[in-house]
Amino acid sequence: MRILVIGSGAREHAIITSLVSEEADHELIAAPGNAGIAAVVPVIALDTTNAAVVADFAFDNDIELVVIGPEAPLVAGVADAIRQRGIAVFGPGKAAAELEGSKAFAKRIMDAAGVPTGRAARSGTLEEAVAALDEFGAPYVVKADGLAAGKGVLVTEDREAAVAHAEYWLGHGPVLVEEFLAGQEVSLFVLSDGHNVLPLAPAQDYKRLLDDDRGPNTGGMGAYSPLPWLPDGFVDEIVETVALPTVRQLAEEQTPFIGLLYCGLIVTDAGVRVIEFNARFGDPETQVVLPRLVTPLSELLFAAATGRLGSMPLPEFSDDVALSVVLASEGYPEGAPTGRAITGIETAEAIHGVHVLHAATSLVDDTLIAIGGRVLNVVALGSDFTEARSRAYLALDAIELEGGQYRTDIASRVADE
């Protein structure tokens, strides 16, 4: 199958790695890709948020399946333009992608579908935001309503900081003030063809920059899968109470959701609640879910894109555990220097069970350099979490990036249990 993968991060590198591993003679193209992706498949420079440009390229190059990785092309309506050309797309259209593009829209859909979630107040003025902050109390949770590249969420005990965060993001649009929910977080990916759903394996990611969940929120500093502490039947419960009602509500509103419904969940004392929805594979959770997937990924993606998930069995996963540790640039997430050389990846990948996914890299004059905040994902598989952690951190010791930073506690809790 001729497949076009849209995106340039470690998530897309993980998707391509999974597709290549099928040995199904796929012809893969990535747009725009990165240095790691370019070492595996051809890459093409496209404006991936320009719907007409992407649709024309897919049509002119006989692409049979387009897989859209990031949220920006989805919210821009790229999937709609491609579907209009008769090409299968894994990714929701613009209307359904508002599930991620607007947190207020997502809350409305959850309310209409009866999906359990926390209380929230949409605020268009600072006065409204302050009133909501005082109503819900500390810890304070403030979220930008639209896309914010992982930087729009603040959870703090500091009221002044919460007010300042609300004031800043109100300059870009409305904000949501939400009640704080305490508990373990879970990410569950659910494939949807607009009517039927199939769940993948749960994962947990680490949003804070520093060990012990300290420091600012980031796009994600690591993840692991499976989650041995989840109760039996957890995934089935989420499918029945969250995923299916959401997909059916969107279908009822004539905005079918075709693609990956990311369910960001928290297990509270009062039960499971939805923190957020995303309209695509999560990053860095994809990097630990897909290496454990036994079922060919292409079959699942194509079935979702063509309305055939109802005839597919549940995806199978290996018994291996997987964890990913993000190597970030100095200064991330506030800012990051670019152009610093990266070395040692070959040594890291020589460690059994380890592979390195590129997130923000480029090859300049035969030198691999960092061009963004989250630079690499070191992914390790093992028979248990102790083994996987040992392999991952041994690999990180082999990689050199001036000023590079990473968390040292990814999956440490489950490894110690």
Secondary structure: elements and pairs:
Blueprint: E1 2-7, H1 10-21, E2 27-32, H2 35-38, H3 51-60, E3 65-68, H4 71-75, H5 78-84, E4 88-90, H6 94-101, H7 103-113, E5 120-123, H8 126-136, E6 140-144, E7 153-156, H9 159-170, E8 175-178, E9 184-193, E10 197-199, E11 204-205, E12 208-210, E13 214-217, E14 222-225, H10 234-252, E15 258-268, E16 271-278, H11 286-289, H12 297-305, E17 321-328, E18 342-343, H13 345-349, E19 354-358, E20 361-364, E21 367-370, E22 374-382, H14 385-398, E23 400-401, H15 412-416
Parallel strand pairs: 1-2, 1-3, 3-4
Antiparallel strand pairs: 5-8, 6-7, 6-8, 9-10, 9-15, 11-14, 12-13, 14-17, 15-16, 17-22, 18-23, 19-22, 20-21
Describe the protein.
The strands form 7 sheets. A 5-stranded antiparallel β-sheet has the order 11-14-17-22-19. The longest helix has 19 residues, at 234-252. It starts with a strand and ends with a helix. It has 15 helices and 23 strands. α3 (51-60) runs parallel beside α5. The chain has 4 domains: 2-91, Rossmann fold, CATH 3.40.50; 120-178, 2-Layer Sandwich (Dna Ligase, domain 1), CATH 3.30.1490; 182-311, 2-Layer Sandwich (D-amino Acid Aminotransferase, Chain A, domain 1), CATH 3.30.470.20; 321-416, Glycinamide Ribonucleotide Synthetase, Chain A, domain 4 (Alpha-Beta Complex), CATH 3.90.600.10. It is an alpha+beta fold. The chain is globular and about 55 Å long. A hairpin with a 3-residue loop joins β9 (184-193) and β10 (197-199).
